[in-house]
């Protein structure tokens, strides 16, 4: 069974003008706090820096393969974090990320033969703490711990808890190329723990072009000027959550996974403000349903579907 947020907007700060703290504007769910750490840590501002990101996403209706029916999805997410300069070139970040997903099934009798509506809205909340510090002049390391829950409305939160952690490094190979590797370990509902590699790559191809890893994917961006950046990005994305205790599959588990590919644009009217938008297609869409014991009930694909998204971020 795949799990919630295989790489990918985390509880760290979202997309910003600086590549040292950049993240994707994708509102798709990822492991909390796993945004790409900087390859070369600069001295963070003294005191505390706060970040707030609000994101919205809508996936238009797509047909399901297992029988009749279709599915559309809407999502909203809020990220809040605080970063503390704890030592020279070191920082500690703590935060919370909350996301609500609304699944709108229409006559999906291949998934749920009685009502055609196997589940409704799902809530994901994560708390995280992350520490980034230098090993030497060119290499830094990062450590992360998370705890949260993923559940449909009406599910038992005690049965919906998810824990995780990550450890890795990033090294600056040259002024234009950084690379690194991390490992994420995360528990899964009714399944063994998930272990995922976190590749870290940032390549400044030219003064305007940058290719960088973003969680479980890549993003190619072009800096048109100091305020406007646009490009294309793709990643693997997955969510897993506990189902309603009194729903069609009591205390079961649902997994929603897809590969979103998007054209995006980000506007920075100020160094501390980012406004973004995206349009793209979700490919390889898949819905899996499991009973309370972890036995697979349904494995259904959906046609590729168009999605749009917006996001806004403020740091202060």
Fraction of residues in β-strands? over 45%
What fraction, in percent, of the residue positions are helical? under 10%
Which second-level CATH architecture applies?
A: Beta Barrel
Q: How many domains make up the 3D coordinates?
A: 1
- Rg: 19 Å
User: Which structural class do the helices and strands define?
Assistant: mainly beta
Please tally the β strands and state the result: 16
Strand order within the widest sheet?
1-2-3-4-5-6-7-8-9-10-11-13-14-16
Taking the alpha carbons of the first and last residues, their distance comes to 40 Å
Write down the secondary-structure element order: EEEEEEEEEEEEEEEE
Name the CATH class.
Mainly Beta
Low-confidence parts, pLDDT < 50 over ≥5 residues? 1-29, 36-40
| Total number of helices | 0
Reported for the largest beta sheet, the result is: 14 strands, antiparallel, barrel
Overall form: globular
Task: Estimate the mean pLDDT confidence.
Answer: 86
Could you explain the architecture of this structure?
It is a single chain. With 316 residues, the protein is mainly β. It has strands at 48-63, 70-87, 90-106, 121-134, 139-152, 161-174, 177-188, 191-204, 209-213, 217-223, 228-235, 237-242, 253-270, 273-290, 296-302, 305-315. The chain has a 14-stranded antiparallel β-barrel with strand order 1-2-3-4-5-6-7-8-9-10-11-13-14-16.
């Amino acid at each position: 069974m795949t799990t919630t947020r295989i790489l990918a907007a985390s509880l760290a700060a979202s997309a910003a003008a600086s590549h040292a703290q950049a993240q994707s504007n994708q509102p798709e769910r990822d492991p909390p706090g796993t945004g790409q750490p900087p390859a070369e840590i600069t001295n963070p501002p003294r005191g505390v820096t706060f970040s707030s990101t609000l994101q919205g996403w809508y996936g238009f209706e797509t047909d399901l393969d297992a029988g009749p029916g279709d599915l559309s999805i809407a999502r909203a997410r809020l990220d809040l974090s605080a970063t503390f300069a704890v030592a020279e070139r070191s920082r500690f970040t703590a935060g919370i990320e909350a996301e609500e997903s609304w699944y709108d099934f229409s006559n999906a009798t291949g998934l749920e033969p009685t009502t055609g509506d196997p589940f409704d809205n799902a809530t994901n909340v994560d708390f995280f703490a992350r520490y980034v510090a230098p090993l030497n002049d060119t290499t830094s390391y990062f450590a992360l711990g998370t705890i949260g829950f993923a559940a449909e409305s009406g599910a038992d939160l005690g049965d919906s808890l998810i824990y995780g952690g990550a450890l890795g490094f990033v090294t600056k190979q040259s002024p234009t190329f950084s690379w690194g590797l991390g490992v994420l370990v995360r528990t899964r509902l009714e399944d063994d723990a998930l272990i995922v590699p976190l590749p870290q790559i940032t390549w400044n191809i030219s003064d305007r072009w940058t290719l960088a890893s973003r969680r479980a994917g890549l993003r190619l961006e072009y800096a048109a000027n100091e305020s406007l950046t646009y490009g294309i990005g793709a990643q693997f994305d997955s969510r897993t959550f506990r189902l309603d205790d009194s729903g069609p599959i009591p205390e079961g588990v649902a997994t929603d996974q897809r590969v979103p590919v998007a054209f995006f644009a980000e506007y920075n009217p100020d160094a501390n403000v980012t406004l973004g938008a995206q349009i793209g297609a979700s490919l390889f869409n898949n819905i899996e349903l499991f009973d309370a014991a972890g036995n697979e009930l349904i494995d259904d694909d959906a046609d590729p579907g168009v999605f749009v998204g917006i996001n806004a971020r403020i740091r202060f």
